User: What shape does this take?
Amino acid sequence: MSPIGVAVVGCGYWGPNLLRNFAAEPRAQVRWICDLDEGKLESLRLRYPSVRTTTRYEDVLSDQGVHAIVVATPVRTHHRLARLALQSGKHVLVEKPLADQVTLAEDLVEQAERHDRILMVDHTFVYTGAVRHLKKLCEEGLFGTLWYVDSVRINLGLFQRDVNVVWDLAPHDLSIVTHLLGKDPVTVQATGASHTGNGTEDVAYLHLDFDNELIAHFHVNWLSPVKVRQMFLGGSERMVIFNDIEPSEKLRIYDKGIEVKADNREGIYKLQVGYRSGDMWAPALDGTEALTVEVRHFLDCIERGEKPMTDGKAGLRVVRILEAAQMSIKAGGKRVAL
Assistant: This one.
């Protein structure tokens, strides 16, 4: 089978990482690197001398040897670039979030279906060994009924020019949680604040209500003195801590919880809560770089015509939550129904 021709569009912070992984994949042939900054292209030409470079997106679209386009540009450009690619018959991998409005994300999903092309969103954390293992455990029912998710993703910077901290950091954790649960929240509530004078929120808190009394809370922050990447999941049977910064034990599973009994003897109702404290273990995880797994999955989906784990509809689900969170922030923390 001939290699899948790929073009990488956007070579800022994340684009070079995607480029590196596609260049290392034998089933892919990187044909174009596209960016508006000629200086960035000059640097990449030295590293990838066999790949053509251009500042014109039209060069990429018109190349019949390009089967897939990777869009790693500012969020506000995702819809236009991805839409043109789909209409040109190219498969598309878009950096998160899929778009900056629900209506635009919906349009991309529709375009992918209309042109029978793969639309995949770069929700990188879904492809980590830790999250893939968590998904397997959730499907096996190891945690019982999930009661809560508590997530913290904070650091000092990087301040973005076109999105606030919610649109920048929250997509990571929202994509993880919606992937693990396989369902949407019922309501979204959020608060945030800006401390730079430009009105762009740099600290925010999101609260999601699901059915069956499951709640999820997310803290995202560009103003923290330390970097934290932790997620707690509590269930009726077991609980887990996902610490992405931890080098060796990213998942710690605890056989801990409560046991509730109702005692109605002698006509007096009493609620008895007992505590269960068992073992903790850290499962072995696949250490393959998440982007490598993601790139291979994207190519698999193109070759086999399969639906990606993080397809356009998964990206749309996250954008819906982000837009609702933004509405809630602007309304002073009002609860927004989805």
Residues 4-122 form a domain with the Rossmann fold fold (CATH 3.40.50.720).
